[in-house]
Amino acid sequence: MQVASNSLTRRRLLAGVSGGVALAGASSLACGRTSSGPTSAGRAGKAGTAPKRGGAITLSFNFERGFDPHILQPTDTHIMGLFYSMLLMMDFKTLKVVPNLAAKWETPSPTELVFSLDPNARWHDKPPANGRPLRASDIIYSYNRIQSDDPRFVSKAYLSSVDKMEATDDHTLRLSLKQVDVTQIGNLALPGMKILAPEVVEKAGKFATADTAVGTGPFVLQSHELNIGSQVVRNPAYFKQGLPYLDRVDLRAFQDSQSEWAAFLAGQLAHKAVPGQAGKKFEQEQKDKYTLEWFGSTGSISIAMPNTKRKPFDDPRVNRAMRLLMDHEELKSAWVDVWQGRGRYSSVFDATTSDVWDFSEDQYRQHLEWEAPKDDAIKEALSLLAAAGFTKDNPLKFLLAGNGGPDNQQALTPLMQSQYKRDGQGVVNPDIKSYELAAWNGIRSSGQFDYFVAGHSSGGTDPDVFFSTSYQTGGGRNYGKMSDPKLDQMFAKQRAMLDATERKKSVQDIVLYMMDNCPYGATPSNYVLNATQLNVHDFPAQGDTYNELAEWYEKVWVT
Q: Of 233, 275, 268, 267, which Cα lies nearest the Cα of 252?
């Protein structure tokens, strides 16, 4: 059932969108980065200085969920690029896919991809792989594992177009696609697509200790102590000659963001995202003390997701009303600006993707859900709720669940509760509960929730990464089990579009349709100010505290 709304027509919302915007090629990711966020500041290091080998840096990360990249969110798997590798890599600066384990690739036809593996790639000299050469069959094994029907394997959508995998020899992999899919190359460069050795998986069990993490990456995981820290050391047999530059990367576990920030200011951490509200002042006052750069979120956004298999959230009228009650301007000013630095309206995508593919903020403001003041949206929401049987005498009561881990996520749940109560005017009355990280993952993946609002990762920047994982029927991160056959067809259609301008129009058609028909809502996306110690060079800017692929740490060096 579709819900009538007072939304804009497509013609009005698309007004002013140029059809000549430079977009991606067939890979859908080979485009230059644009940004509506603040410009970069500070110094990027000594210009013209050659990288220097040796030294170490310290970063903040706690491997709370083990070392199996195939069952974890991108927020966990990104850092595993220190010791695991992927077939291809994503450069988040340029949004281009570049070689990694695959030294090169070819497309003999629109539905064939042939990868030539780097002949020098070897597994770490740790049992049971013991330094043996990488084989094409290892990649096929890993991709078959990712495609498991086990719901823990959340990245299977990234291989949904693959029909056949063949190792024509130890160093050549051939993928045959079911149909033309311009997103497939980019999908192979996403954080969850790490390559594992079969013998390592068979022995690793729960992947809970450092000895179970055996990869082909630039560093070797030497030690790990939960809630204390970990250490990786240079891989002496790394297949990229001369890399990595660093001898070691130390990872420290922090229990709160305040102590983490204090450690950075004391020079104990190489890099840190500046706390949200402090960003603009910090940029002005500290620009000569650190390398500073604003960067948009990459692959993640916070999402408001009902369980569409539970009453009353199986009713589109209720879900539409809940979205209309979201106050996006307040979410931007009272949450994103406070915790991340700067917000941008969105309904589906992160900031990086929105900058290239999405509507502008001015265009969002013309749509009922984002209009200010909220009077018309609230009136429409209350009308929809009344039609569904909810009034002040019979209020909508449910449990609003949230992630009790990161500080910013702890702040999001009560803010959303206050919006629903205030703008719901007594008709909406949720209780809230925040869950510890380990429990939260199980609750979300098993669908044991009424409604949740929390950070949500797709891992990539192409629009289809968001579509296929979180909104497509059966998607690995579609925890609320929404299913819209029309939307699924729209998703499939845009994947086959080779013309970039045509595809952008299709993507915006999808976003417009989702604004009025999707049960899931999204908070504004964010930009954060990256701060890096001046003696650390070529450290990759990050979308927030954890979204950059650690594969790029191979090129970091210190003076």
A: 268
Domain ranges of the chain: 70-208, 298-526
Contact 531, 290 (CB under 8 A): yes
Give the DSSP letter of residue 175: E
pLDDT at position 47 is 55
For residue 389, what are the contacts with CB-CB under 8 A and spacing of at least 6?
312
Edge-to-edge strand order for the sheet containing 229-234? 56-60, 248-252, 229-234, 219-225
pLDDT in tens, 508-541: 999 999 999 999 999 999 999 999 999 999 998 8
Cis peptide before 151 (omega within 30 of 0): no
Domain 298-526 CATH class label: alpha beta
- Residues 47-59 have pLDDT tens digits of 568 999 999 999 9
Closest CA to 490 of 510, 473, 513, 461: 510
Q: Look at the chain and count its residues.
A: 559
Q: Do 337 and 524 form a contact (C-beta atoms < 8 A)?
A: no
| Cβ–Cβ < 8 Å for 404, 435 | yes
Q: Please list the ranges in the chain whose pLDDT falls under 70.
A: 1-48, 544-548
> 10 Å Cβ neighbour count for 148?
13
Output the six-digit token pair for 176. Answer: 């045959």
Q: Encode pLDDT of 281-330 as tens digits.
A: 999 999 999 999 999 988 889 999 999 999 999 999 999 999 999 999 99
Cβ neighbours of 9 (radius 10 Å): 9
Q: Is 49 exposed, middle or buried (0-12, 13-18, 19+ CB in 10 A)?
A: exposed
3-state SS, residue 54: coil
Angle made by CA atoms 359, 361, 362, in degrees to the nearest 5: 100
Instruction: Compute the mean pLDDT over every residue in the chain, rounded to the nearest whole number.
Output: 89
**For residues 141 and 70, what is the distance between their CA atoms, to the nearest angstrom?**
12
d(Cα 56, Cα 249) in Å, to the nearest integer?
Answer: 6
Q: What's the start-to-end Cα distance of the chain, in Å? A: 62
Q: Where are the beta strands (DSSP E) in 464-524?
A: 521-522
Q: Which CATH class is domain 70-208?
A: alpha beta
Please, are residues 102 and 115 in contact by the beta-carbon 8 Å criterion? Answer: yes
d(CA 152, CA 144): 14
The whole-model pTM stands at 0.84
The residue assigned the tokens 């569904």 is 388
